């Protein structure tokens, strides 16, 4: 390691964690029980955690590790596309049904991992069908058929 | 009742057709999951939990299946290590050192056979150790009061912190984060909702499964996007052949020593298969490598880490079952699974639910035999699985994660939450925060708080009860020592270690 690495990642993380510990701690302070079953009540343990996290995050801010190698923009874009597809899939699963939604999702993911659209669709359709048969008929675990389809 | 009659009772549970089938399924899937780089035991177990849950399996059957995946994965991990020089899971990293050179010399079949036998010996010796030690440890642990339990859990976190990553503080942060997640929901002590922000879905707490699958599987898929090295083997020819008696006898002492090392390292909280295999390999290298052949395809260098990592996974079951305090990410996930089935492991389980512990232990004897059979003649089949292209494999892992989470509550909210946790897990991996402490914190959080509050209720609010008894003093001292350990010795601190899951 000849080049000097910056320590920004850990410092930013440390500040965010410090904010989290403060927010969590204040939220814990507002907790009150109607009756006290035990001397500690609902607050003490969370307050301990908040204090510990605050302490550790200060350590992180003042003694940060060198930054990790964040992936290049091309990979970040791919990861972002993947996350968008996960969110879309979460919303599409019930209305589109497992078979269609999964085929589309698998095609997109296969594409992101370097396959062509044709292979992706075929592979995705095969996987969706195989999993559907396995889960619904083999294991008896229901998967959504889709609200948009008649029947 | 003595151990043998308890074990006999265990076999009567494990030998029912359903449980035999599940032990086989666990062994098979475990080998598969271990063999595939990019999906390790913790992901495999996490993805299978919702399936076991949805199938409404009785708890002992579910545990037999999930534990089978766990120890089976240690068998499978070696296949990719030997054939591709890419470890199939974290415990098999060391196996590449001599396994791949053996394969390059045309001895892949021999390396696979020897490592399968070493795995079997290590795994079986660990189950024997589990059979002998677990009941005594459980009997002893029954005397633990809430203060001792609290100190024990602190000890589990500190050893995990000192062993699980390069930076102990980051591991501690990960632990606290997991504990914080565990405080979300209705407080069992007072009935007050905590950190729910009025969201009804959070009243029952953060769903353990959603966190486990998001944290491990989804973050893994995001990480795999970065790596191009995860090569798929083009053509793999594996001669299924047995290892010669001479080679086996030459490795036998290494196997036995490494099994012992592996078992005891596995029992320690925080240290799992990857550390066990590393320690066993270095020990053998010091003891028997007189000609300097380690690293160039020495069969003993394959046998030692494989015996150790399998023994470690058996050893890791000891604290999980007897104390209810898991020492690794995967055993934490197993513990979380048991809690989903309304079973709380710990010393009382040996008295109250003997069919669960002894059924599991008996099934591990059977499972190891099945694994040996699966991994000797059928190793070619598993090797062929390595030729599945990446563009199909990774999306398939994602699909299974989504089905698993969706099957539990049929809720899109859970899928989104899982994706969010996956992003957190990915960022944590990148920034050097270990993931196992988060899951340990989430699983142990409630128990830790309950014990703290019970202890303080006994003492009437006097905090000194936490370190009043000699046992709790000893546990606090051990916890402190384990935190200082990386600074006291360069042995663990100087070497780059793979993350243990």
3D architecture notes:
The complex is a heterodimer of chains A (151) and B (501). Chain A has 151 residues and is mainly α. Chain A has 2 domains: 55 residues; 67 residues, no CATH class. In chain A, 68% of the residues lie in helices and 0% in strands. Chain A is built from 5 helices and no strands. In chain A, helix 1 runs antiparallel to helix 2, helix 3 packs antiparallel against helix 4 and helix 4 crosses helix 5. The longest helix of chain A is centred in the middle third of the chain and has 24 residues. The mean pLDDT of chain A is 89. Chain B has one domain. The C terminus of chain B is likely disordered. Classes of the chains: A mainly alpha (151), B mainly alpha (501). At the A-B interface, helix 1, helix 2, helix 3, helix 4 and helix 5 of A face helix 8, helix 9, helix 18, helix 19 and helix 20 of B.
Largest interface here, residues on each chain? A-B, 68 and 61 residues
Low-confidence stretches of chain A: none
Can you count the beta strands of chain B? 2
Number of helices of chain B: 22
The protein's oligomeric status is: heterodimer
- pLDDT averaged over residues of chain A: 89
Treating each run of at least 4 consecutive H or I residues as one helix, how many helices of chain A? Answer: 5
Brief descriptors of the model:
heterodimer, A: 151 residues, mainly alpha, 2 domains, 68% helix, flat, B: 501 residues, 22 helices, 2 strands, 1% strand, globular
């Amino acid at each position: 390691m000849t080049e000097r690495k910056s320590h920004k990642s850990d410092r930013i993380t440390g500040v965010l964690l410090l904010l989290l510990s403060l927010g969590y701690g204040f939220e814990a302070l507002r907790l009150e029980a109607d009756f006290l079953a035990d001397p500690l009540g609902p607050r003490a343990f969370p307050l301990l955690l908040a204090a510990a996290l605050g302490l550790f995050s200060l350590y992180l801010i003042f003694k940060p590790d060198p930054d990790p190698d964040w992936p290049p923009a091309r990979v970040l874009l791919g990861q972002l596309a993947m996350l968008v597809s996960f969110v879309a899939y979460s919303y599409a699963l019930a209305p589109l049904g497992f078979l269609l939604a999964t085929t589309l999702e698998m095609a997109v993911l296969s594409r992101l991992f370097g396959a062509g659209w044709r292979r992706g669709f075929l592979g995705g359709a095969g996987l969706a069908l195989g999993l559907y048969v396995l889960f619904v008929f083999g294991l008896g675990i229901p998967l959504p058929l889709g609200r948009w389809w008649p029947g | 009742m003595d151990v043998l009659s308890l074990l006999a009772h265990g076999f009567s549970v494990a030998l029912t057709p359903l449980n035999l089938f599940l032990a086989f399924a666990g062994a098979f899937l475990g080998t598969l999951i271990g063999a595939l780089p990019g999906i390790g035991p913790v992901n495999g177990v996490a993805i299978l939990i919702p399936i076991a849950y949805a199938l409404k399996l009785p708890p002992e059957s579910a545990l037999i299946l999930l534990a089978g995946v766990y120890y089976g994965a240690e068998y499978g991990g070696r296949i990719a290590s030997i054939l591709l020089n890419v470890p199939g899971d974290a415990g098999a990293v060391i196996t590449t050192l001599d396994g791949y050179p053996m394969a390059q010399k045309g001895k892949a079949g021999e390396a696979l056979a020897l490592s399968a036998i070493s795995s079997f010996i290590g795994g079986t010796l660990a189950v024997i150790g589990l059979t002998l030690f677990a009941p005594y440890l459980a009997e002893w642990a029954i005397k633990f009061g809430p203060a001792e339990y609290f100190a024990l859990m602190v000890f589990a976190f500190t050893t995990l912190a000192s062993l699980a990553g390069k930076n102990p503080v980051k591991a501690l942060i990960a632990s606290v984060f997991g504990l914080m997640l565990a405080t979300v929901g209705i407080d069992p002590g007072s009935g007050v909702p905590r950190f729910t922000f009025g969201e009804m879905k959070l009243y029952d707490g953060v769903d353990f499964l959603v966190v486990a699958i998001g944290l491990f599987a989804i973050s893994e898929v995001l990480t795999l996007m970065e790596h191009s090295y995860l090569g798929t083997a083009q053509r793999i020819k594996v001669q299924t052949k047995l290892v010669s008696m001479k080679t086996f006898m030459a490795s036998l002492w290494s196997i036995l020593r490494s099994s012992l090392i592996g078992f005891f390292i596995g029992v320690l909280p925080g240290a799992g298969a990857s550390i066990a295999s590393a320690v066993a390999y270095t020990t053998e290298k010091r003891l028997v490598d007189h000609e300097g052949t380690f690293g160039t395809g020495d069969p003993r260098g394959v046998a030692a880490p494989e015996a150790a990592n399998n023994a470690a996974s058996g050893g890791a079951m000891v604290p999980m079952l007897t104390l209810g305090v898991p020492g690794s990410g995967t055993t934490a996930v197993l513990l979380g699974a048991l809690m989903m089935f309304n079973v709380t492991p710990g010393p009382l389980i040996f008295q109250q639910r003997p069919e669960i512990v002894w059924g599991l232990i008996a099934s591990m004897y059977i499972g190891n035999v099945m694994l040996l059979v699966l991994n000797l003649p059928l190793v070619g089949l598993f090797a062929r699985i390595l030729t599945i292209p990446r563009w199909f494999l990774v999306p398939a892992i994602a699909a299974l994660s989504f089905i698993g989470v969706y099957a539990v509550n049929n809720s899109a909210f859970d899928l989104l939450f899982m994706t969010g946790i996956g992003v957190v897990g990915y960022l944590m991996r990148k920034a050097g925060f270990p993931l196992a402490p988060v899951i340990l914190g989430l699983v142990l959080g409630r128990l830790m708080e309950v014990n703290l509050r019970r202890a303080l209720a006994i003492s009437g609010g006097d905090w000194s009860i936490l370190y009043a008894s000699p046992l709790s003093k000893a546990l606090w001292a051990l916890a402190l020592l384990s935190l200082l350990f990386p600074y006291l010795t360069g042995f663990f601190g100087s070497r780059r270690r793979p993350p243990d899951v």
